[in-house]
Amino acid sequence: RPDTCFVSPDVIRRRFAAAMSAMYRDEVPLYTTLRDIVAEVNEAITGEPDAAVERHGAIRVGTPAEMRAIARLFAVMGMHPVGYYDLTPVGVPVHSTAFRPVTAEGLAINPFRVFTSLLRLELIEDAALRAAAETILAGRTIVSAETLALVDRAEAQGGLDEAQAEAFVAGALEVFRWHGTARVDGETYARLLGSHRLVADVVAFGGPHINHLTPHTHDIDRVQAEMAARGLPHKASIEGPPRRRTAILLRQTSFSALAEPFVPAGADPASEPLRHTARFGEVEQRGAALTPRGRALYDQCLATLRNEGTSPDEAFAAFPDDFVTLRRNGLAYARYVATGTSGGATDLEEALDRGLIVAEPILYEDFLPVSAAGIFRSNLADDDYSASTQASSQAELEAAIGRAILDPFALYQAIEDASREAALAHLRGSVA
Ligand code: OOG
Ligand code: NI
């Protein structure tokens, strides 16, 4: 079959992300308010209409088999596992990856990615509860047989045609829908909640409901101020680096999760519903991707920040705040672009000095474990936290996913290398 009758995975992802956004706005009205704020702030900055397009969302799954099904589902949409995040040292019993597009073209068509966490059931201390949770999870199917059949189809034939893609998007959406009815009774819900709020969130319901969506803003401080002005219950502080002239990595804030009514299994529908707190809305602002060296310096600054009495600006004073220095010192990746002028330079630095090539930041497309912990934490009860000493296991998560997790640093390095080669080749071409 010729490829031309297949809808591109990037287009399927774009349709899916739009459908997910519409569903979430409908399910969580406060999210519509947040999205409106983001659109207004962005428009005020760029002078262009802004759709507040979602950059990411997050889900949590309960078993390796669920992780595998989700990974196959995302692959149909051109989303691949990038980065390993172990959240257990910061007291959240999960390890995670982000399913995201990996090419510049894919990101440009639609940047949606999903931070996906696998619950580490072995961290439930109460053996009886752990066994009960395992049994409950073993009995659920998160992707319908029809949708899985479409995934099989996509894998076998190398894509989906228009009608199949439409059915796939509709089926995929169902996986992430909120279930107002729990699969467990009120007493079991309470026991799961007592173990960790996250355990209740993953185990008690019919599937991995999307727990937040996150549009991108050009000015997160302004969005935060606007949330406060409109009385949205927001996170006390923005995660990530402080505000800087040259944005680095990722800054995030969110409104607090709502206590939503649900009916436990076996309950009289006329009785008072229980409430579950899980779903929220988030905003992100992204900056330059850092090299391993830059990232080490970032982590060092964060550690300084944890010392009492140190302000964010003081803690980050050691971090250069202009892109020229960030690049020269090997702290940030660069994309090299030939300016079109011919000049005979063959050395990169010389070409940069003479303006024949310009260096620009590569946008960070991944997540930050400490920030992610802060986002989890702001939406869970404080007493849920006890850091675990459980060894982190990327291999275990990869076994669940069924393939290797891609290394984000290697992806950025490849973009930088390819751009350098292309820019230098362009100069050589101009000389000839
Ligand atoms: C995921 C939290 C991590 C982020 O933006 O860092 C995250 C979750 O709450 O399931 O989405
Ligand atoms: Ni998030």
Helical percent range?
40-55%
Mean pLDDT: 93
The proportion of residues in beta strands is 5-15%
- Main sheet: which strands, in order across? 2-3-4-1-5-9-6
Give the helix/strand class: alpha+beta
User: Which overall shape is indicated by the principal axes computed on the Cα atoms?
Assistant: globular
Can you identify the CATH class?
Alpha Beta
Total helical elements: 17
Low-confidence stretches: none
- What is the number of beta strands? 11
The CATH homologous superfamily is named Uncharacterised protein PF07063, DUF1338
Brief digest:
Its cofactor is Fe(2+). This protein is α+β, with helices and mostly antiparallel strands.
Topology:
Blueprint: H1 9-27, H2 29-46, E1 54-61, H3 64-76, E2 80-86, E3 94-100, H4 104-109, E4 113-119, H5 127-138, H6 145-157, H7 162-175, H8 186-195, H9 197-203, E5 212-215, H10 220-229, E6 250-255, E7 259-262, E8 274-277, E9 280-286, H11 292-306, H12 312-315, H13 323-328, E10 334-338, H14 348-353, E11 357-361, H15 369-378, H16 394-401, H17 408-431
Parallel strand pairs: 1-4, 5-9
Antiparallel strand pairs: 1-5, 2-3, 3-4, 6-9, 7-8, 10-11
The chain binds 2-oxoadipic acid and nickel (II) ion.
2-oxoadipic acid binds near residues 211, 367, 372 and 375.
Question: What features would you describe in this structure?
Answer:
With 432 residues, the protein is an alpha+beta fold. It has one domain (3-287, 365-405): Uncharacterised protein PF07063, DUF1338 (2,3-Dihydroxybiphenyl 1,2-Dioxygenase, domain 1). The chain is built from 17 helices and 11 strands. It has helices at 9-27, 29-46, 64-76, 104-109, 127-138, 145-157, 162-175, 186-195, 197-203, 220-229, 292-306, 312-315, 323-328, 348-353, 369-378, 394-401, 408-431; strands at residues 54-61, 80-86, 94-100, 113-119, 212-215, 250-255, 259-262, 274-277, 280-286, 334-338, 357-361. The strands form 3 sheets. The protein has a 7-stranded mixed sheet with strand order 2-3-4-1-5-9-6, sandwiched between helices. The longest helix has 24 residues, at 408-431. The mean pLDDT is 93. The structure holds 2-oxoadipic acid and nickel (II) ion. The site of nickel (II) ion has 7 residues, from strand 1 and strand 5. Keywords: Dioxygenase, Iron, Oxidoreductase. This is 2-oxoadipate dioxygenase/decarboxylase.
